[in-house]
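Obj: model holo form, ligand = adenosine-5'-triphosphate.
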Amino acid sequence: MEKVIIVRYSEIHLKGNNRGFFERALFVNMEKSLGGIKHEIRRSSGRYLIENFDESQTDDIVESLKKVFGIHSLSVGLKVKSDMDEIFAAAKSVCSTEGTFKVETHRADKTFALNSMQISAEIGGRLLSQFKNIKVDVHNPQFTLSIDVRENGTTLVFNKSVKGAGGMPVGTSGRGLLLISGGIDSPVAGHMIAKRGMAVECIHFHSYPYTNLQARDKVIELAKVLSQYTCGTKLHVISVTAIQEEIHKKCNGEFMVTLLRRFMMRIAEKIAKKVDAQCIITGESLGQVASQTIEGITSSNSVIESLPVLRPLCGFDKDEIIERSRAMGAFEISIQPYEDCCTVFLPKHPAIHPNIEEILKEEEKLDVEGLVNFALSTEETLKI
Ligand code: ATP
Ligand code: MG
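Output (holo structure tokens):
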């Protein structure tokens, strides 16, 4: 009798001829997520089995796999020879000792002596005589004991399933560059896009020495949380200090955020193209703050030359974003108090509905290309 973990895919089965591609991506991502833990992953007709692991690490494996997109559900179970006594022994050890239950059998091996109804009836009967406090209820059971008689002479027996992360395996929908700040929103935006199968790299802008090194560490910590779902990531760190100083010196202070946003987008597009990312991702949510009015978004969007900008949080309330931030494990880090670069030189009254003529007039006072190139020269890339 061997402990195994059964991994069922989510949307992968919908992908027809592409199925092999999705299955391989999922395999690679599970391997990455279980790096450092002894295990073997085997494919077994439309699902994966995790085998040969140390039983004391079962929970660690399940916790890691719960963060891998493309997994519909997971069950910890037992693998035995397809033999009724062995199946019963396994059923006994995964069965709850009280409550109502039913036995559900799937029989892929049509040569097995009993059919699925007979297997369920026989094992159910034996369990009833073994445990005095369980009762059959086929309509509304408190637990379902599942038996899966495979074609290869082995049978899987398990009691419950836990929900996986759903979505599609990261790496099957291209690559995007996420603008990550130290706030709540951007890590959630990255998580949502990764769930649709996109590999995510991150870019962060800082204003050191106006912002401190703790602010940078916080972003690194957030990228680490995100990387559990994106199967690793890279963080490109860029200084916009010179840009903010120039804007502060030469432009109308009301436009600090608007102008800075436009610089961030220009730089992000350059880095995206360099790393073969096909889009830019931000954590903007319509109307949330002054820079996220439709005019603000239009202004920062208009400097982008060719890549699409995905804003998965656009229609969400802050409450909904916070709920997702907690669920992905980022919230406690995001609420640490270190300052983001946007708050440096922040005007008392930022332009809420910036108009493009005014912005262009302010921008004429700056050497835009020179500042972009200088910022690019400060790039540091961290492998997370
Ligand atoms: P967040 O919680 O992600 O910081 P926010 O509600 O604070 O978002 P803004 O500060 O207006 O909103 O930022 C909007 C988006 O712009 C962010 O979600 C992020 O994608 C990007 N952004 C803002 N500041 C930075 C930064 N310093 N580095 C990289 N991206 C940034
Ligand atoms: Mg922010």
